[in-house]
Amino acid sequence: MPYIGRREFVVGGATVFTLASLAKTEIGALEKEKERKETILCGVIGTGSHGRVLLKELMRMDGVEIVALCDIYQPNLERSLKGIGREVRSYSDHRQMLEREKDMQAVIIATPTGTHVPISIDSLQAGKHVYCEAPLANDIEDCKRMVKAAEASGKVFQVGYQRRFSPLYKHALKFIRVGALGQPVQARAHYNRKDSMRRPVPDTKYERLLNWRLYRDTSGGLAVEFGSHQLDVVNWFLGATPISVVGNGGIDVWKDGREVCDNIHLLFEYPNGVKVTYTATLGCSYERNYELFLGTMGAMWFSKEQIGLWFKEPDAPELGWEIYARKEQLGDSLGIVLDPEASKYVAQLESGFKPPEKQKPEFKNPFYIALNEFFECIREGKKPACGAKEALQSTVTAIVANMAIEKGERITYRREWFEV
Fold first, then answer.
1. What single DSSP character describes residue 305?
2. pLDDT score for 325
3. Considering the domain boundaries, does residue 394 fall inside one?
4. pLDDT score, position 101
5. d(CA 107, CA 129)
6. Which is the most buried residue in 7, 137, 140, 301, by most CB within 10 A?
7. How far apart are alpha carbons 251 and 254 in whole angstroms?
8. Concatenated DSSP letters for 34-84?
C-alpha cells in the first residue's frame, strides 16, 4: 500500500468533503424540487371571521402555499393580508381570481351560505379542487346543483362538516357499528350560546353584508347554520335520514330587527322508532353544545372540546380494554373516555403488557384536521370523508327542519329531497 502523506491526506480529505458537499447540495436541491412539486397552491375566498380561522390553520401546514385571497369587503381582506405577513395577491371578485390564478390548484370557500353554490361551481369549472364550508346552501335545489357540479368536475370537493374528520368521532362510530350501544332509542343535541351574533357595521349599507346570518334571504337560521353540523353526526351515526320533523321557535331574546329565530326546538323521528331532539338558543350558554346517543346497552356523549364519554349499562358485555381507559365524571355518572389509542392495548394484554398511565387526550384543532384531509385527498386522489352527497343529506335535514319551524307543522321528508 503506498504511503499517504499529511498533505495528500488533507487535500484528499478536502476533495472528499467537497464531493460530499456537492452530493448533499444536489440531494437538497432534489428534495426541494420534490417539495416544490408536492406543494399545493391554494386560494381563500371569504376572509371574514371564519375565513381567518381557516387561514390560521392553512399557515401552519407544510406543503400548502396561500397564493391569493378574495373578499368583497375590503377591511376583511386587508386584515387577512396583514395577518399572513407576506405578499399575497388579492381580489374583490372571485371570478377574476379564478381566471388569473392559473397555477392555483385549490380554493377554500368561507363565504356566507347563500353564496356557496355559485362560487363553488365557478371554482370547479375553473378546474380547482374545492373545500366549501358547511352547510351547502339554504335551498334544496341549490344543494342538488352543487352535487351535480361536484360529481361532473372530477375534482376533490369537500364540505366542512368537521366532525366527519375527527379521530374521536370516527373511533366512536366503530363501536356503534358493532352494537356497543345496543338498539339506538334516542339522540339529543343542542347548541347554546349567549350572543346576539350581531356585528357592528361602519355604515348601514354594510348591514346585510356583515350581518347576513340574521336575515332570511341570506341565512338558514340556527337550524341550518349551526344545527346541520350536529344533525350531520346524527345521520352519520344512525346511518339514516329522518322520516319527519316538527318544531317551533321564535325571536325571544334579541329583538333587534333580525328575521331568523334566536331560540328553536326540534323533534325528529328516524327509522326504527329512534327519536331525536335538537335545540338551539342564543339566550344562554349553559352546557354550550354536545351530542348524546342513547341505546339499550349504554350512551355516548360528545362535547365541542373533542371529548367523548361512554356510559355502559350494567348488562352490557365487556370488551376488555375498559379497565385501562381513563374515566371522567359527568353529572352523576362515571364515563369511559373514548380514546382512539386505548383499544389498541387489548391485543397485548395476554403477553403481560402494562399500558402506561393515560393522560388527557391532546386537543387537536378540528379545522386543521379537516383541511389536512382535504389536501391529502388531492395528493392521493382519494374521496373525502364528507363530500357533496353526504353534505346534501345533512343540509336537507336542516333545511326541512327550518321549514317545520316557519310553518308550525309536522313535515314528512320526501325521498327525492335526498336524491340527485
1. T
2. 81
3. yes
4. 98
5. 6
6. 137
7. 6
8. HHHHHPEEEEEE--SHHHHHHHHHHTT-TTEEEEEEE-SSHHHHHHHHHHH
CA gap 17, 25 in Å, rounded: 12
Per-residue three-class SS string for 21-38: HHHHHHHHHHHHHHHHHH
pTM of this structure:
0.87
Q: Any idea of the CA torsion for 287, 288, 293, 294, to the nearest 10 degrees?
A: 20
Structural domain tally of the chain?
A: 2
Please state, in angstroms and rounded to a whole number, the distance separating the CA atoms of residues 417 and 144: 9
The string of pLDDT tens digits covering residues 30-77 is 454 444 448 999 999 999 999 999 999 999 999 999 999 999 999 999
Per-residue pLDDT at 332 exceeds 50: yes
Cα diameter, the chain:
100
Q: Does 325 share its domain with 228?
A: yes
Q: What is the DSSP letter of 111?
A: S
Residues 124 and 190 in one domain: no
* Residue 155 DSSP symbol: S
Model confidence pLDDT, tens digit, residues 149-168: 999 999 999 999 999 999 99
Q: What is the pLDDT of residue 339?
A: 82
What is the spatial distance between Cα 324 and Cα 199, in angstroms, rounded to a whole number? 47
